[in-house]
Amino acid sequence: MTAPRVVPVHPDFSTADIETILASVRTSLETGQLAQGAQVAAFEAEMARFTGARHAVAVATGTAALVCAIRAVAGESGDGEVLVPANSFYSSAAAPLLAGLRVRLADVEAGTLAPSPATLAATVTDATTGVLLVHMGGIITPAVTAIADWCAERGLWFVEDCAHAHGSRLAGRHAGTFGAAGAFSFFATKVITSAEGGMVTTDDDELAARVRLYRNLGKPEEWRSHHTALGENARMSELHAAVGRTQLRRLDEFLKTRERLAQRYTAGLRALPGVRPVLPEHSPASWYKYVVALDPAVDRTALRARLKAAGVQLGGEIYEMPLSAQPVFDGRIPAGRHPVADALCAHHICLPLHTRMGDDDADTVLDALRAALDTAAER
């Protein structure tokens, strides 16, 4: 089988990055400081400075960031219902459930891939205690401050799922600073990666302390086995922090490259029938995904196959199926109608976009997409 000419994602480590990481890992191995050391502390300080948050707390995964953040804002009562976008990733719904809460899905707006005050108002119940907003594909909905105000007026907590939004800003504010807390992921496919890892951002001193408690087995003191809360082992290792720090130093560079490629896609898609890019109304955006809505008449499965045959491998959608269709949530999440989210899940693709791509790669994708759509129109 011929290897694709353009792949959907590729982590970006320069020779200098690799040497820096290896030197840091060597120090950790030689000193024996593999956890809760200088690398994690530095990564936290640098992430807080980059986002403008007062605190950044490193954890083992993006899912752990969500669980710890939600537990910190919601408490340990195990009571309450969380509104979650119907078109998100598994972890957005699993995290509240793992934190002992219930989930109700909210529909979204087609232009932002996110809920609005109107869709939340149509979903909220007397049992609702909080809202989890996802910045899908790195898009911060322009309604984010209105959503925060809507939550505040009703006494609901508000947390941001920022797994896609490293570097995304709206009106000068970074993702993860609009709500009580933001939860980031540094998985291998993300805009920046630590291989595995996550981070919780917040301006609330007490909330940050609770996140640190929950990530470290409920221990107020890092190394003393004295447990005051039902926490978990969600710590980030020194080795992962060393990787993440090199990536964070290059995030501004990465954002510029992703913006350039995204603008090339946007210009090239203007004349193509049957497709519509879903574009952020803010800058900078992370462009974690370049989302293209398809006309319902376009067969996505066939389109993906034609692109693959032309050497273009598409990545995963965001997301292929709504949360309500995931088998694990059958019986755990109440049924409801989410027509916009359902349509978005069924009728979009994500074009390859990463910092190892050049303009010629973007043109290859556009040419292959144009040919694939022409072939579809002829049938």
From TrEMBL:
Cofactor needs: pyridoxal 5'-phosphate
Gene3D superfamilies named in the record: Aspartate Aminotransferase, domain 1 (3.90.1150.10), Type I PLP-dependent aspartate aminotransferase-like (Major domain) (3.40.640.10)
GO molecular function, one term: transaminase activity
Pfam family, one: DegT_DnrJ_EryC1
Assigned keywords, A-Z: Aminotransferase, Pyridoxal phosphate, Transferase
PANTHER family named among the record's database cross-references: DTDP-4-AMINO-4,6-DIDEOXYGALACTOSE TRANSAMINASE (PTHR30244:SF34), TRANSAMINASE (PTHR30244)
Family indicated by similarity: Belongs to the DegT/DnrJ/EryC1 family. L-glutamine:2-deoxy-scyllo-inosose/scyllo-inosose aminotransferase subfamily.
Protein name per UniProt: DegT/DnrJ/EryC1/StrS family aminotransferase
Gene source species: Streptomyces blastmyceticus
Lineage, highest ranks first: Bacteria, Bacillati, Actinomycetota, Actinomycetes, Kitasatosporales
